[in-house]
Amino acid sequence: MNTNIIKIEKNIPIPEIRWGSGRLSRLDFIKDLDIGDSFVINGNTPDITPLSALNAAYSLAYKLRKKGGKTADFKVTCRVIDGNYNKPKAVRIWRAQ
Question: What is the mean pLDDT of residues 25-31?
Answer without folding.
Answer: 81
